[in-house]
Amino acid sequence: MKRSRTSPLSHSPHSESNRAPHLSSLQKSVSPPPKRRGANGQDGDNPHPSKITPSDPKTSEYLDTWSMKLRKSILPASEQGSTPHLPIDQWVDLYRRHAHSNGHHFVIHQHDHPVAGPHYDLRLQFSDSSTVCWAIMYGLPGDPNQDNRRNATETRIHGLSYNLAETASLGQGSVIIWDTGDFQILPYRTGQDQPDTDDTSSDGGHAPAISESSKLRDAFQRRKIKVRLNGIRLPKNYTISLVRQNKHKPGTGTGTGKTSLKNRRRPAARMSPSPPTDPDSMSPPSPRDPEPKRGETTLQEETDLSDGDDREIRETNAYPGSFNTIGSVHGRTWYLRIDTVGSGFRRVKSRDGKQVWVRNGGATHGATRSIQGFEPFYVLGPEVERSVVTGRLGKDVLDDEGVQDFVPRRGWVPKA
């Protein structure tokens, strides 16, 4: 198979003359599982990975299936550029260590959908079978001194086994494992707290007194999540904050969808969210990040699911084999940004009087401390970003799965 060579992952600012247009990536069902029935059907007891229902509880079987599939798909090191690589045996071991109720596995999928467009799905394990998921249009922010705010929109609850997925189809586009590892839930505090730099993660067989999955469920209910992602690609101690501002904000998938007459008559420009009250919680994203609208997911979901499945999934907001015991609501908006203090930065005044974030540590006052924080990085999209497991681009996955005539959505521009 012929591989096309591309530039390695870049960590330099990406210039853009025009901001991304209004995309539908957060208005559609961005990550449904493959069809359970239909013209293609399943291929017996050991189906092709692209036809596996992501949330099926037969996790061990699927781990074997995915690992065999991905092992054969790993690119030579010379073709992987500078993308960090997780050996397949370590990838399998990582998943097995967390395949229980106290597990805290995470994955970030890059999903290049033909209709919704490119986006990045953050999936955090909260039980032995299920993950809570957010779709992030521009990927995770990597520069604390740029606009690092993102909309993060809740999607369906997925089965834990879907964290293994790296596949493609004509209707769903390509999915690659952009990063994976485990996570820690840290106390959500305001003010200039010192960063917690203990990045040791608990082994699957030695659960802490309060498990990370329990902490996640609690933080999710409190609507304020501070999570450290211990991944392969993300920098050491990379920490983000997720905040859901309003419990019952109309029009964002938070329940009945009823809107008061006053709100219906209010001009759209005045419907933007007000700033959060916590001094260190994130501000609402800029107008470049459009908020999803309620009631615009039907067409895509009905295309991919049978009538019976569709009804049950809508009622539970969970794909078959997963369980929405965390109370996730499809289409609900959270605000995401880098937790700068937690990631190892401090704020100083620059020569021109502006407040900037700099890395902690180094030589200060005659003493030398280890440098914390990280150099800026930028997510550059499907044409550049590679899998940390196989080293493949999205188009390589399309080729490997025999997908022809895939037409990507145009107009996506990296957010630097």
Automatic annotation (TrEMBL):
Residues 1-12 have a biased composition (Polar residues). Coiled coil: none annotated. Residues 299-310 have a biased composition (Acidic residues). Residues 1-61, 188-217, 240-319 are annotated as: Disordered. Residues 109-240 form the DNA ligase D 3'-phosphoesterase domain. InterPro entries: LigD_PE_domain (IPR014144). It holds the Pfam family LigD_N. Residues 273-287 have a biased composition (Pro residues). This is DNA ligase D 3'-phosphoesterase domain-containing protein.
